[in-house]
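Objective 1b of the project was to move from sequence-level analysis to a structural picture of ligand recognition. The entry below was assembled by the postdoctoral researcher (A.K.) and checked by the PI before modelling. It contains the amino acid sequence of the target and the SMILES of the bound compound, adenosine-5'-triphosphate.
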Amino acid sequence: MPAQQQHDQQRLAHEAMPLDEGGPTRAPLAGAGAGSQAATEAAVQAAARTGGVRISNVSKSFGTDESRTLVLDGIDLSVGMGEFVSVIGPSGCGKSTLLKVIAGLTDADGGEVTVDGNPVSAATKNKMIGLVPQSPALMPWRTVLDNVTLPMSVNRGANGGRSMRDPVELLESFGLGHAIDKYPAQLSGGMQQRVAIARAFVFDPSVLLMDEPFSALDEMNRDQQRMGLLDFWQSNRKAVIFITHSVPEAIMLSDRIVVMAAHPGRIAEIIDVDLPRPRSVDDYATDEFRDLEGIVRAKLRAVMEPGAADAAAGGTGETR
Ligand SMILES: Nc1ncnc2c1ncn2[C@@H]1O[C@H](COP(=O)(O)OP(=O)(O)OP(=O)(O)O)[C@@H](O)[C@H]1O
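Corresponding predicted holo structure:
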């Protein structure tokens, strides 16, 4: 195999490498074969219950037998189909580790993760999970189009029969139609990150995992990218789990915000973002947005400085 192709395959190994070669393990539909209306209805309801991402009692520790550190402790979270959930919390609370467990890049010590009812091993094998890392990780010697089509060539025939997106159309949707023949070094940081997001959509995944994708960008660029993502997601609703350190970003994008506490990492609060959609940059200035900012910041202060909760949240320590 030519060296470049080998390198590409290694870089994308996580996309290609199922943890379990056991084949698709989609739960059988209730009543399949019975042919009755009731059985069909039961199947539809069962599918609805298992859709999206389900994280049940997940724990993870690092270290040796002599000295282990518990990093995730009993994480329970469901993210429905088409729901946008952000995860925010102090540095080191385990946000990236949680994303890696969901993506099948690291094994949990205990608990279970399913994607549309499938265990992670089957979900990764069938390309049901799209991952956008913190840095775009583009191949500098490949054009924008070749970077986006790379998962297709590396994983040819390994998508469990899922439909694939037209890469040129995808790039056009992200405002990159003019850049398909350019190389990553010829693009701004924001454009590079958009290429990485477009690449994650190639297999039309059920769930999109995003680990601080805009953190390296300046504030203006960052705002532009997050509104672009929001526009695209509005018409391509996926279950999204989005890690961020920015409270306004979490509010602008999300249906719910998960606030994590550290040592060990656990879910401290889940806050509903009941702002209407579609959203725009004008929303930053509304009273509702600012109220939510206050609530999320108070909860963050509470998990970072236990004891400050009551003062920060007006005496109750409550969020909503
Ligand atoms: N492979 C590993 N081996 C040992 N410890 C690890 C490993 N990966 C993560 N950790 C530890 O697990 C803890 C959680 O790390 P993680 O990167 O998930 O946190 P985070 O919340 O994403 O942090 P940040 O916000 O700074 O990115 C940290 O203490 C980290 O040092």
